[in-house]
Amino acid sequence: VSRAVHCALVHHPVRDREGNAIASAVTNLDVHDIARSARTYRLAGYWVISPIAAQRLLVDRILDHWKHGAGARRVPERAHALAICAPVANLDAAIEAVAAKEGTAPEIWVTEARSMPGLAPIGWDAGRTALSHQGPPVLLLFGTAHGLHASVLARADVVLAPIEAGGDYNHLSVRAAAAITFDRLFGERLGT
Ligand code: SAM
User: Fold this and answer.
1) Half-sphere exposure (CA, 13 Å, Cβ side) for 127?
2) What residues flank ligand 1, with Cβ below 6 Å?
3) Ligand 1: which of 172, 175, 181, 184 to mutate, judged by most atoms within 8 Å of the beta carbon?
4) For a tag site, which of 99, 116, 117, 161 has the least CB within 10 Å?
5) Are 86 and 97 in contact (CB under 8 A)?
6) Is 114 in contact with 170 (CB distance < 8 Å)?
7) Is residue 109 within a helix (H) or strand (E), and if so which, with residue range?
């Protein structure tokens, strides 16, 4: 991959069951698990987006525990994963943070559990190919609750095709979806 890739977990605006914009709560597990997957696949950053200051403080406390506290002493390699993680208030702040780190504003790539009308998704091989060329950094967005709100999807430069498992049940956790997405975009292709 020759382009810097960052990911973000969006807690607002995300959809409720009716598609209205809500804010979801940050969970400890999402911070850890996605940071470990992102670090494993060499992403340059993992931004936890929440407009609620107390939620961003929670993320800071989790990071501090694992980077400097008891967690860092017990499981030092966890600190390396969380070193790429930081809380930000909204998508614009995440874009600014990536632009500050990479020198150029990122393309926005979004993920969705099912194809949405009007959003022409690109396939996984096309995604891998796009990342192998020179180009601006990428900020890959994952949703919470019932998914990224329409106002976020409207800002996408690229919509990744849904992960299709072929069955009629499609409710991957965001942690699982992130890991599968990273492996499809950045994983070694053994045997090919
Ligand atoms: N509360 C749930 C949890 O604990 O994971 C959050 C569900 S949220 C809708 C799941 C997110 O993972 C989606 O917004 C999307 O970013 C991603 N996702 C889930 N299933 C997916 C699929 N089949 N293909 C692509 N992305 C998917």
Assistant:
1) 28
2) 111-113, 142-144, 146-148, 162-163, 170, 172-174, 177
3) 172
4) 117
5) yes
6) yes
7) strand 107-110
